[in-house]
Amino acid sequence: MWAKALLLLVFVTYVIADDLQQCLQCVQQNQTWCPGTSTCGNTKACQTPITLGDAVQYIDLFILTDLQLSLNCPRLPDPAYAYNETFVRYYITPLVAGVFPSTPEKCLKSQLPYVAFYKTVDVKCATEMPDTYCHCYTAWDKAEKAIIIAFRGTDGSYQMDDEILSFFEHRVPFFDNGHLFKYFHDAFFFLWNGGLEQQVRTLKFQYPDYKFYVSIM
């Protein structure tokens, strides 16, 4: 059983690596790669060709099937950032849980006593709908050498309505390529300008060699 699983893993790794090389060669020639058929240049073979920068086309599962940028070519994740069940279950989960009370201190002291809470940010995060607020907190961990930013996700029906409206009607260009939903773009900058930027700058100045852990729920 284990031998079959290992063989399958090696095969999948080989296929992904081969597809990556072909994809990179394709886009470097200013052509379009279709991951569904592993073909270059013939976009007619894609079920729903989508070109980044053109009008977004939606299908049932919102699948993008056409690649023109090398950064979108299929590739294996960096082993340094591979999924770790223990880390997620016993470290990230308490960080996420900490966004629901007004302050995460009690939660962090109970589950992650070596994580030091810094500050929270609470702002009104939309202009279109009433009573929609965003919340996040910052912390740091000397054991992990990490600066932590934890965002709260959707909170209440008003906020959900605002997000749905933005999902279907509003988007803003990303600085590099593609687009963002306007609601989440604006919400982030309401938090950033509402105190998060200064908190991050202060922590990064105090702990310049620390990495960042960012969570949202």
TrEMBL record:
Keyword Transcription part of the UniProt annotation: no
Protein known as: Fungal lipase-type domain-containing protein
Lineage per the UniProt record: Eukaryota, Metazoa, Ecdysozoa, Nematoda, Chromadorea
Domain of life: Eukaryota
InterPro entries documented for this protein: AB_hydrolase_fold, Fungal_lipase-type
Keyword terms: Signal
Residue ranges of domain Fungal lipase-type in the record: 148-214
Annotated signal sequence range: 1-17
GO biological process: lipid metabolic process
